[in-house]
Amino acid sequence: MSAGLAALALAVGLELSLGEPPRRAHPVAWFGRLVGPMDREWSRPRVAGLAVALLLPALAAGAVIGLVALAGRLDPLLGILLAGLALFASTSLRMLLDVARDVIAASERDLAGAREAVPALAGRNPEALSAGELRSAAVESSAENLADGLVAPLLAFALLAPLSLSLAAGGAAWIKAVNTLDSTLGYPEKTHGTASARLDDLIMWVPARASAVLLALAARNPGALARAREWAGAPPSPNSGWPMATLAAALDVRLEKPGVYVLNGLGELPTVDEARHGVRIVALAGALSYLLAGVIAWS
Q1: Nearest residue to 275 (alpha-carbon basis) of 258, 251, 257
Q2: What's the rounded Cα separation, in Å, for the pair 75 and 27?
Q3: Listed range (11-20, 170-179, 213-222, 241-250) with the worst mean pLDDT
Q4: What residue ranges are annotated as transmembrane (predicted)?
């Protein structure tokens, strides 16, 4: 087994057994604390934002590359261990799917609880959301997070693993750092976050579309991709519409963020069973993404 494949296997095992590192020990939380002071008024916000978008992910990636390379020189197994831990910290799926399942279940019996839980998945005001809209948010978020939370860092790791284990781990960390900057700063009202949002748009172009293909395969519905093309441009993001629209087509339901976009407007909002089926499709697409990453890393 190659070092990259071994590190990937370790990350998969940790994902299945733990789901997510404890927050106090989560490198993404550490990075978030580093980003916090950058979220303020700047005299030249676009220049400051560009510097933040370029330097902070480079710092995160450089730290991971250095640590994994040093560990590998001391002991190859230690290098594999640190690379696997870095990849595990850079990816996220199981926890998000668990929260989505909780929101879907609560939408049937505890609307207040579902509204309380949904902000952990989707950035929208939950107070006026109906049960169907809450389930829609859970399904949409599951599809979108497949792309940025799993496929993007996995793809970076797999492509770089044949070259260098430390570069592979650093590439996954860089992707995660860019995603974190976008989720923290990348809002229209934050001029200093424009560069972070644009960089995230650029790096997510391929992973979003790859995620759409994986979702269509997982749903055993290749025609969903053709239907998704009709709606993928509805969300403001140039990328997130692809996995969400593909899942809307595969389930033949309407997915909607009120006042922002509608996917498959002729359909109905998902029922509990349809929403649960959607989460299962995302979980299977996640498994396929790990398998694909293994094939690429091994080759």
Answers
A1: 251
A2: 23
A3: 11-20
A4: 47-70, 77-97, 150-175, 279-298
Identify the DSSP state of 93. -
Q: What's the residue count for the chain?
A: 299
CA separation for the pair 237, 99 (Å, rounded): 23
CA distances for 59 relative to 19, 85, 173, 177, 275, angstroms: 26, 18, 10, 9, 39
Which residues on neighbouring strands pair with residue 255, listed in sequence order?
263
Tell me the two tokens of residue 229.
């093309």
**Is the entire prediction scored with pTM above 0.85?**
yes
Alpha carbons 103 and 280: distance in angstroms, whole number: 14
Which residues, at least 6 apart from 22, have a Cβ–Cβ distance to it below 8 Å? none
Following CA atoms 218, 224, 230, 232 in sequence, which dihedral angle do they give, to the nearest 10 degrees?
A: 0
∠ CA 142-90-225, nearest 5°, is 35
Domains of the chain by residue range: 3-298
**Contact residues for 255 (Cβ-Cβ < 8 A; gap 6+):** 136, 139, 140, 244, 245, 247, 248, 262, 263, 264, 269, 270
Q: Can you give the three-state secondary structure of 178-192, one letter per residue?
A: HHHHHHHHCCCCCHH
Q: Which two tokens stand for residue 155?
A: 């793809």
Q: Could you tell me the pLDDT band of residue 17, with boundaries at 50, 70 and 90?
A: confident
Which helix or strand (DSSP H or E) is residue 123 part of? none
CA-closest candidate to residue 86, choices 67, 107, 112, 108: 67
User: If phi over 0 gives left and psi between -120 and 50 gives alpha, with beta otherwise, what is residue 19?
Assistant: left
Longest dimension (CA), the chain: 60
Residue 13: how many CB atoms within 10 A of its CB? 12
